[in-house]
Specification:
This protein has about 210 residues and is mainly alpha-helical. The chain contains 10 helices and no strands. Helices cover about 70% and strands about 0% of the residues. It is elongated, with a radius of gyration of 28 Å. It starts with a helix and ends with a helix.
């Protein structure tokens, strides 16, 4: 099993590994509790914003793990009340007759972690929106590409842009039909000439 330290080091170098996701929050909660790691448990209140199948989760836990689950549910209910977040934790506590106590320090630890994680998530969503804005700006670029290149040529250039390996056929096609166009477009003399053409046309139109 890959260590978290190795995964983080790889991601810093741009090598992102793809891992399977959980089918439900319940599966994630079960696996997290089985780690018996207090630091990981602090994250669990983030995953009670959607309805969970308490019976299914509890059936896969030991007595001590179930006790920890009940405590986290009770803490999460209080956190969600303070944050005005809709949830069904009160219903679970009532129906399952959950009685779990926790100290003020435990609540503060979980609540602080919850707020920090929510701030991090908000920042991530902000970066996602920023990325989407940049993608919209790229629409102009795509329109320019479509004027100069056929769809087949654009696909090859996209593979190169994303560091994907070309087949021998694609490589030959690139040097035969694409490279010469790229060099012409990048030629400063051609760019200056085209600017003059566009400027002269605008003056002539007046």
């Amino acid at each position: 099993m890959l260590s978290a330290k190795l995964i983080k080091a790889l991601e810093k170098k741009g090598f992102v590994l793809e891992f399977p996701d959980y089918e439900s929050n319940g599966d994630l909660i079960i696996e997290a509790l089985k780690e018996h790691n207090p630091r990981i448990n602090l994250s669990l209140p983030l995953f009670f914003d959607k309805e969970i199948n308490y019976s299914k989760i509890a059936s896969k836990l030991t007595a001590s793990e179930k006790k920890e689950l009940n405590k986290i549910i009770a803490i999460s209910k209080k956190i969600y009340q303070k944050e005005n977040i809709d949830n069904n934790l009160g219903e679970i506590i009532k129906n399952r007759k959950i009685k779990a106590g926790f100290s003020g320090k435990e609540f503060n630890d979980y609540y602080s972690s919850f707020k920090e994680n929510r701030i991090t998530l908000t920042k991530q969503e902000g970066r996602k929106i920023e990325k989407q804005a940049k993608l919209r700006l790229n629409l102009d670029l795509n329109k320019c590409l479509e004027v100069l290149f056929s769809p087949a040529k654009i696909r090859i250039m996209e593979k190169i842009f994303h560091h994907e390996k070309l087949t021998n056929t694609e490589l030959k096609y690139y040097y035969k039909s694409i490279s010469s166009i790229n060099k012409a477009v990048l030629n400063p003399g051609l760019q200056d000439y085209l600017r003059i053409i566009e400027l002269t046309r605008k003056i002539s139109d007046k």
